[in-house]
Amino acid sequence: MKKFKKLFDVNNFRKILFRIFVGIIAFSLIGYIFSLIFPRKNNPSAYPDTTPAVDKLTYWSDKNGTVAKDIEFIRDSDYKCEFIEEYFQYGLLPKITKISNNGWNLLLLNKNNILPTNYEVNLKQITGTSIRLESPVVDAFNSMYFDATKVGLALTPYSGYRTFESQRRLFENKIYALEVEAASEYANGGSYDAQGNYIEPVRKDIKTIVNEAASYVCTPGCSDHNAGLSIDIVSQNDDFEQSEEYKWLCQNAHNYGFVLRYPSDKEKITGMHFQPYCWRFVGINAAKEMKEKNLCLEEYLSSVLK
Ligand SMILES: [Zn+2]
Q1: How far is CA 290 from CA 5, 83, 140, 251, 281, in A?
Q2: Fold of 57-304
Q3: Is 125 helix (H, G, I), strand (E, B) or coil?
Q4: How far is the CA of 119 from the centre of ligand 1 (A)?
Q5: How much is the pTM?
Q6: CA 185: distance to chain centroid?
Q7: What distance in angstroms lies between residue 231's CA and the mean position of ligand 1's atoms?
Q8: Which of 79, 27, 28 is nearest to 51 (CA)?
Q9: Cβ–Cβ contacts within 10 Å for residue 280, how many?
Q10: 10-43 burial by CB neighbour count: b if 16+ within 10 A, else e?
Q11: Ligand 1 mean position, distance from CA 82 (Å)
Q12: Per-residue model confidence as pLDDT tens digits over 210-260
């Protein structure tokens, strides 16, 4: 009973509180000193290994097909980095593109060449839309648009200049879509080849998916749209490749300084899947030469301008 009373004695209770307090302070100090001696490695600019920072494979285990809906693109919270640095770990390591004397219109942006974040664009709006491009590109587009209307075609602008952030959103949406697709393919089980042999479903890892996404949508800072140099054009026809507008562009766009940025026969060189709607301004001289020699921008810049 005495002991019990002692425990609730005010002075003694204060002592206990004080000891707990000192204990917490001492623990925190030890932890702090420890963290100074052994700092956590979370520097993404060093060349990271290829293992995903987040275990993305957990959702694969469910074969009921419903999991795909709930996938989130989770990030390692320690991975505090901007734009492209997030994808270093998956092997996407672009160098800052050279701002050369070739002119702003011959800027090379692709998987290996990224725009510096301080690159300045001089944007102008396409009248009647919210779409903006480098100022001279708008003028070139307007005259191309006007001439197309003379033959009854409407080159409807769909997308022009994009910030790094909006490019990042597009890219991540593509990653998400591919993840969902891969997860549901896996959940649906394997397939059979022509001989009737069962093929096990393939587990795609996140590195494969991110790289696949990068062949459909440019990584942030690596798109011509980030420099206001490309315009995506759509038409009434859902399949733009089959539209009259696409045919007209193929025959005439070079006269206004535009080229098809990702042609179907240059996928290996551009690293991108064919995009019939994506037209890049390079200037009339370059466009005509590229058209004449059937060169994509990568080929033109590496051969002709050397
Ligand atoms: Zn485009």
Answers
A1: 94, 31, 17, 13, 12
A2: Muramoyl-pentapeptide Carboxypeptidase; domain 2 (3.30.1380)
A3: strand
A4: 19
A5: 0.71
A6: 23
A7: 6
A8: 79
A9: 25
A10: eeeeeeeeeeeeeeeeeeeeeeeeeeeeeeeeee
A11: 22
A12: 999 999 999 998 999 999 999 999 998 889 999 999 999 999 999 999 999
Q: How confident is the model at residue 73 (pLDDT cuts 50, 70, 90)?
A: very low
How buried is residue 102: exposed, middle or buried, by Cβ count under 10 Å (0-12/13-18/19+)? Answer: middle
Greater model confidence, 282 or 101: 282
Distance (Å, rounded) from C-alpha 248 to C-alpha 240? 11
Cα dist from 237 to 111, 158, 222, 244, 249, whole Å? 30, 14, 29, 9, 14
Six token digits for residue 235: 């038409």
Residues 193-210: tens digit of each pLDDT: 889 888 887 778 888 999
Distances in whole angstroms, Cα of residue 251 to Cα of each of 40, 107, 148, 188 = 57, 24, 11, 44
> From ligand 1's centre to the CA of 208, what distance in Å?
23
Residue 25 alpha carbon to ligand 1 centre in Å: 57
What residue spans of 38-163 are helical by DSSP H? 135-150
**pLDDT range class, residue 188, cuts 50, 70, 90:** confident
**pLDDT recorded at residue 69:** 28
- Taking the domains of the chain in order of start, what are their residue ranges? 2-37, 57-304
Q: Which residue has the higher pLDDT, 57 or 159?
A: 159
**DSSP structure string for 205-235:** -HHHHHHHHTTTSPPTT-SGGGGT-EEEEE-
Query: Residue 60 C-alpha to ligand 1 middle, in angstroms?
Result: 33
Taking the centre of ligand 1 as the mean of its atom positions, its distance from the CA of residue 111, in whole angstroms, is: 14
Report whether pLDDT(267) > 80: yes
**For residue 288, what pLDDT is reported?**
97
CA 103, CA 105: separation in Å to the nearest integer?
A: 5
Ligand 1 centroid distance, CA of 180 (Å): 24
216 CA distance to ligand 1 middle (Å): 10
